[in-house]
Amino acid sequence: MVIAFQAIQRTANFAISNPARECLFTVLAREEKYKAKNVIDIVVFRGMDAASGWLFAALRGAGLELGAISLATIPVTAGWLALALALGHVHERRTRDSGLHASPAMASGTKGV
User: Fold this and answer.
1) 43 to each of 27, 63, 79, 100, 107, how far by Cα in Å?
2) How far is 91 from 101, CA to CA, in rounded Å?
3) How far apart are the C-alpha atoms of 36 and 11, rounded to whole Å?
4) CB atoms within 10 A of CB 88
5) What would the 3-class secondary structure string for the chain be?
6) Using one digit for the tens of pLDDT, what is the confidence trace for 15-63?
7) Within 13 A of 112's CA, how many CA atoms are on the CB side?
8) Is the dihedral of CA 101, 103, 108, 109 positive or negative?
9) Which has the closest alpha carbon to 84: 97, 56, 76, 39?
10) How far is the C-alpha of 108 from the C-alpha of 113, rounded, in Å?
């Protein structure tokens, strides 16, 4: 079960998350792009992996069961959703300001042939 879940998670990361994240970088200058990628890789992914492990251990140590911990993650998920929406709006604004416009093929998710 764990192996199946990890395979699905990795597939989703490579098929959905990575392309979506890379799309955000299209309106950045080269220097901004590489600085942002370093922050995302080091601070966000690795830092949040460590912090979530510590937080889970702390909540378990405080006596919370898995159900209560799951409920406690709802505000965190809402925060990530708000961040994703804000990043999308900033990307749209930067795209509009830079004069870059996605082609209809790109907007629909298909490749122009």
Assistant:
1) 22, 29, 17, 29, 30
2) 11
3) 23
4) 13
5) CHHHHHHHHHHHHHHHHHHHHHHHHHHCCHHHHHHHHHHHHHHHHHHHHHHHHHHHHHHHHCCCCHHHHHHHHHHHHHHHHHHHHHHHHHHHHHHHHHCCCCCHHHHHCCCCC
6) 888 888 787 787 778 888 888 888 888 888 888 889 989 989 999 999 9
7) 6
8) negative
9) 76
10) 13
Place of tokens 């961040």: 83
Q: Which residue has the tokens 């998710």?
A: 109
Q: Please provide the average confidence, as pLDDT, over all residues in the chain.
A: 82
Tokens of 63: 């006596």
